[in-house]
Amino acid sequence: MKQLLFLSAMIVALTANAQIGVFSQVLDKATPVDTARYAVTYSLDYTCHPKADVRFDDVRTLLIGRHHVKDYSDVIYHYDSLATSQSMRGATTLSNPPGSPWPYEILLSDKGRQADMKYRLPIGTGVLHYSEQVPTMEWNFAADSTQTILGFECQMATVEFAGRKYSEDGYYVSYMPYPFFDASGKLCVVGQDDSEIYNSPNGKYLIRTKKYLVGGNSTIPFPLSQYVQDISITSPDNYVFIGREPNGGSQYAMQANTATAIVDTIHKVAISPELQTWMPNAGELAYSDKHNRLAFAYRLHPVIDIFGMDGELVKRVRIAADTFDPKILEEADFEDLTPLHFVDISASSDYIYALYWGCMYSEKETTAPCIYKIDWTGNVIAKRVLTTFPIYKIAVIDEDRIIVWNGKYFINVEL
After folding, report:
1. Most buried pick, 127, 209, 322, 345, via CB within 10 A?
2. Is residue 343 exposed (0-12), middle (13-18) or buried (19+ Cβ within 10 Å)?
3. Does residue 273 surpass a pLDDT of 90?
4. Is the pTM here over 0.85, yes or no?
């Protein structure tokens, strides 16, 4: 936590440097120094000088390992990856990052007082690589603020650095711990650092099970990222979930047996043969124990795929014309450039409930969303246009009643 807050302070302090556009570079094979246990993506708004009026923005990624913390521009990395792919295909011109992403890469170690700094020089003139002394930080911890979260003792703290005061007004937890319910209806959580399953008997604390969806001893069909989502339990020790190949690869509906540590694919999630990576195929997965089927609702396409546990497609439900242009994948903020369709999904034994926007993210507060009720053979049973918006999440209570989340309140909705 100290390293994390210091890194935030260092980021702001370094923005006094002049900012000129940077060029992409072909990525070299890296030497691993640690394994990331947590990942955070955040927006950085900055100026080149404390008194400057012109502001710039960047999307940053923070990786936290056991012994290192690394912060880098997600925009620059995205375009470096594109340039690497283009170069491998023999391209003579490469894609460059748009705008003015912050050109620093910072690596902190828990050993020593030196930060490893990389500064991307402007207009493709190279990378400045140097070390910078890490100052001693005087931390002030808030009294009576200690909580144990996922086995870590966390405490709120403030610190002053470079004339500014930084406050951690919340608690740091595992990157996107994914909640789900077991067969008895009790809350469980899967950690995103190692896919371990945690039980929560009363919803107030977590207990390790030492069972893993995708563990180090798991038998897997191909290399998998530790990121998992949309977990459902199908029977004792058996789970279904969405898994991904690493480095922007494809995603699959998968099944795992935690007793045998065997993981296998059920169905590759892809809207078309041309769009095979996970980014244009983002969405949500739901499961029916009665029909033993899965449904995947695409976020960037007006489509829901229903398929069996054998992987065979039962039906593709399309409720509108497609709006997705593959060319926007070259942009770091591509989701802001296309309408969003199914943004959430929930399910009962007999029906699928899908939250549909059909608008740009910037239009979510002025466009009425709707909920589609679909049976597990793909028939649209009902459509309910909501009068409250935006709506981000839905959860089915019974066949004709669901709860929706508008970012502030839970609201009962009858279909």
Report:
1. 345
2. buried
3. yes
4. no
Angstrom distance (rounded) from CA 16 to CA 50: 7
| 261 contact partners, CB below 8 Å, separation of at least 6 | 212, 215, 217, 218, 219
Would you say 386 and 371 are in contact if contact means Cβ atoms under 8 Å apart?
yes
Q: Copy the structure tokens of residue 142.
A: 């808030």
- Of the listed ranges 56-60, 122-126, 131-135, 279-283, the least confidently predicted one is 122-126
Q: What is the mean pLDDT of the chain?
A: 83
d(CA 366, CA 175): 31
Is residue 150 over pLDDT 60? Answer: no
Output the CA–CA distances (angstroms, integers) from residue 114 to 68, 103, 130, 249, in the order listed.
Answer: 12, 19, 10, 35
Q: Which pLDDT tens digit goes with each residue over 188-242?
A: 888 766 788 988 877 667 788 888 898 878 999 999 887 788 999 999 999 999 9
Two tokens, residue 140: 């002030």
In angstroms, the CA 413 to CA 247 distance is 40
Give the residues across from 141 on adjacent strands: 157
pLDDT, residue 167, reads 57
Distance of CA 112 to the CA centre of its chain: 32
Which is it for the CA torsion 206, 172, 39, 177, positive or negative? positive
How far is residue 22's CA from residue 17's CA, in Å, rounded to a whole number? 14
Lookup: tokens for 226: 């530790």
Query: Is the model more confident about 400 or about 14?
Result: 400
The pLDDT value given to residue 415: 78
Could you give the strand order of the β-sheet that contains 127-133, starting from the edge strand earlier in sequence?
36-47, 55-65, 68-73, 104-109, 114-120, 127-133
H/E segment holding residue 355 = strand 351-359
